[in-house]
Amino acid sequence: MSVESIQAGKQLPNIAPEIKNHENRPSKPRQPELTAILVAVTAIFAIFLVIPMVIVLAKSFQTGDGAATMSNYAAILARPEFLTSVLNSLKVAAAAALVAMLLAFLLAYAVNCTNLPPKFKKAIALLTQVPMLLPTITYGFAIIYSFGKEGLITKLFGHQLFDIYGFNGLLIGYVIYTLPTCFLLINNSFQFVDKKFIIVSHIMGDSHLKTFFVTTVRPLIGTMCVAFIQSFFLSFTDYGIPTSVGGTYDVLAMTLFNQMLGSIPNFNRGAVIAVFMLIPSIISIILMTILERYSIRYSKVSQIDLPEGKKRDLFCAIASVVVLVCVLSVFAVILLIPFVEMWPFKLNFTLSHITGVFADSELTAVFTNSLYVAVMTAILGCLFAYAAALVTSRSKLPAAAKRFVDSISSIINTVPGMVLGIAFLFTFSGTPMQNTFWILIIANMIHYFATPYQMMKDSLSKMNASWETTAKLMGDSWFKTIVRVVTPNAWPTVLQVFGYYFVNAMVTISAVVFLTGAKTQVITTKISALQHLAKFDDIFTLSLLILVTNLVVKGLIALATRKKPIKAKATEAAAATVKQGARKSAEQIAAGSFALPPINPRSHGRNVVTGIASGVVAAILVAFGFGAFSGTAAASQQVVIYTNADDEAVAAFEHALDNNGYKGKYIMQSFGTSELGGKMLAEGRSLEADMLTMSSYYVDSAEQRNHMFSDLTDVKSKLLGTNENTKAPKYRSPTTAQEGAIFYNTEAIKQAGVPVPTSFKDLADPKYKGLISVPDMEGSSTGWLMVQAIVGAYGTGDEGKQILTDIYKNAGPHLEQSGSGPLKSVRSGEVAVGFGLRHQAAADKKKGLPIDYVDPTEGNYSLTESVAVLDKGAKTNPMAQKMAGVIIDQGRKELLETYPTPLYQGEQEPANGSKYPKTFDKPLTVDLLQQHQDFSEACKRAAKEG
């Protein structure tokens, strides 16, 4: 018998009775190694997925007083926009998944089934994966800066090609986002399609179309459907792209985002939406089970030359180039803007943005953190996905066990990263994992498990199923077979999985935004903070840094895959083993005494003991890692300060502290308002921070829910004056007041031919339709400033409702979920007029941008931000209250230069103060915010219906 026959898994002739009797035994083969792996995989899923999601499910039934009712479900289902967002999500996600899957198949076909030059094929494979090297939070910005009214591609064509907001923008973003994942899945399966059947089909006289469907599409139909499902759920659960280009096209992910990270976070109702987003997982599990029937396994894959097809090759080459140009052109601005002084107003070449990144020590530390998290995620993720795939594709364990792992993989696809992050936050707050790198690494491993697992499973299942059996007959252990035979043949896929985990860990934000601490910040969470500060030049610069890093890693992986030094040696060793075994088997068959080698109980015992010992060692290492990489500042006794403040306020805080003897005694960590608010409400006294500065109503909400702040009465050296909206409670003291104003692009408003508006009533005029951008107060508290002014001047009756409704009509798709969104749109020339924070517009004007602002005649209403100290009992840092007093006493003078609203007795309004400062006639509480939000929602519905 030949080696090829044994490799192909053919039945040995003249098998001795001993083997027949052995095969006829009712008991199944014992596989202790795979059983141990299954137990470990199950335990990891139970701890880091099942338990956290059960907690989220429990939260969906809880009310504010802790009771378990269906009121949250009733409240969500009663909202008319909920069903609309569900249908919209289904439509755009399905359309994007179909397009992405078809484009990925085209590109993979060009790589695997044509006679195009090898370097051209490699270029296609590498360039297709470029989008996954960038964080999705920048996708929307890239689309706007490319196809918007003042976008790069728009300028090249001389006019805007299409409307980028709503369905169109989401479709483009989702297709670009999910194309690399689809390509990796399909391209990986292509490597295990036996191309000799293409030759056979041609010889038999089949038509080109029949040959294509029978020999190429048919073997891949299962993988293509899996790619569709993967793409669908990636699109269905993404919120980064809708944030920028979703417009008025509501999708479920944004509804979830607003519930969990909006101006009034409601984790319980957010958990309800998360549960609804998990429902499709049941359908996906059924589909995955059905698709298994269409999987084709070849005993051997032939490496042959494909028949000539010049028309086929030309078509695939042109189509591939067109697809890649369309996809990659969107990201051209990322390569351009970091080297431009200020797009699109100052196009002078500069390196200041790049040098500024490397000159920032905080940013350097954040980048180092990202690299560490990405590398560890890739290493551990590879091992985890490989282990799970071995259970389902290379074992004879019960079918139920295999279905369990497949089902978990399907469920993970449907769990939004934001929900997983919140679930980890609820589950691990107060544990040793809180604020460690390990919680970030594990969150990434779980979040991105599905695609690496499917890649490994496809690779392992396509291999000859008899390798382990043959090796066992030769006396080799299971572990040795996996290391010497299976792994070398799966090595290209292992490297691809490593790259997939690495780049996704570098670009993710949704799963880790709630989990980072003062010393465990990663680069994407920094980008999120910069978004709230409207620093889009810095965002593109950091995105470029991420792109370069990921390109280097992918390039190294491609180089290692091309050389394949390990695979060649391993294949030779495997061939020698099989050859030697074949000779031995032939001799035994000839002698009529072929029998399985006797089972050595001691050997199996040693394997089990070794596995247990390895697990203990791993546990010790993990425990050590919890302490070594915790990232907290407790050991150094530094005061950890969390803040949502702008750069100007942070600088004032630091100057006050440094000038009063506290330099080096604190760590200042910036967050977006929503992210910090979520951490405050969820973690309570377990929050890493010793002190924080935050929006006052958020502080009040956190104190009401968690009772987490200390009394500041003894450290307040000044009494609140009459200029404060209401007397601040004893646990916080105001630091700044954020005022709203109308701002405009001086160039764009000239081109539009409309006058500069001076009031909110002006913004309701139909002549501003399509020319304004305002924040939605459901997603951003900045929008509350506008609603306060309208309600204060016109009430909530017919007049006030009509004005706000008309403003929403005029804004159309430019009703932004972020407070900095309107300024972004005005800067980029997408609109001429916007409403937002006054000091941000003033800063742009000071920089020389064509931005100016006016104070609305209805009044410049304001929201205060306050300093508060966490009450951690015996663990309370004694320096925190002293530093809070310094910020209040010594920081106000510098703060008034940027935020010119007096808050304390004796303070005088600066020359740059607003013209119409006003305070609302009621205390700014969460209840009032909810009332105004309900008023705003009614106006939004009226605007859509109108």
UniProtKB/TrEMBL annotation:
Keywords: DNA-binding, Membrane, Transmembrane, Transmembrane helix, Transport. CDD domains: TM_PBP2. This is DNA-binding protein. GO terms for biological process: transmembrane transport. The chain crosses the membrane at residues 34-58, 92-111, 123-147, 167-190, 211-233, 270-294, 314-340, 371-392, 404-429, 435-453, 498-519, 539-560, 608-629. The keyword DNA-binding applies. It is found in: Cell membrane; Membrane. One of its GO terms (molecular function) is DNA binding. Residues 86-288, 367-557 form the ABC transmembrane type-1 domain. The keyword Transport applies. It comes from the Bacteria. One of its GO terms (cellular component) is plasma membrane. InterPro entries: MetI-like, MetI-like_sf. It holds the Pfam family SBP_bac_6. It is a multi-pass membrane protein. Belongs to the binding-protein-dependent transport system permease family. Its main location: membrane.
